[in-house]
Structures are given as C-alpha cells and as structure tokens.
User: What shape does this take?
Amino acid sequence: MGAQAGEKEQNQVQEETAGVPSLQIPLKPIMAPITGASQYYAPITLFIEAVNKDYIQKICQYRLLIVDAILQVLSRQPIPVIRRKLYLKNLPA
Assistant: This one.
C-alpha cells in the first residue's frame, strides 16, 4: 500500500510539472566514495532540478547542507561501479 501511495504521489508531481521547464542548479563538485574492486573516491558534480522558480532561492540558501547530507548518505553506502560506470539505480532515495 505504501508503494502505491508513493507511485501515486510521484505521478501527481509529474502531471503538475509536465510542460514546465526545469532549472538545474549545480552543487559544488565533491569527492564521492565509490566501490568497485576496491573503495576509492571520484570527483562528481551534482545538479538539483527545480521545477518551481519559487524554490530556487531556498535551494541556493541550503546548498551546503544539501551537499553535506548527500555526503553522509554516500559515506554509509558508496556508489557502486560496474564495468567502469556508476550504477545509480539502487541508491537510497
């Protein structure tokens, strides 16, 4: 039941934002933990997609906290690498 509610909410968001141009806000590049044959770090740049112009100021205001939260999650569960490519499908939401 929880999965259905999540899908329903995601579909609703997609319907509301259909046809609205999104704005990508770059975060500062970080050295993210990567796992493959061994664990190492790789530079990555993340982008946050803002579908509402009202959110841009808040995203920019909390940019450092967002990067810190992402690094905390990635330090617990590094990004897996399969055949020299980042495998992003099973990352935590």
DSSP finds three helices and six strands in the chain. The first strand starts at residue 23 and ends at 26. The CA atoms of residues 32 and 66 lie 14 Å apart. The beta strands are 23-26, 30-35, 39-44, 47-50, 79-82, 85-86.
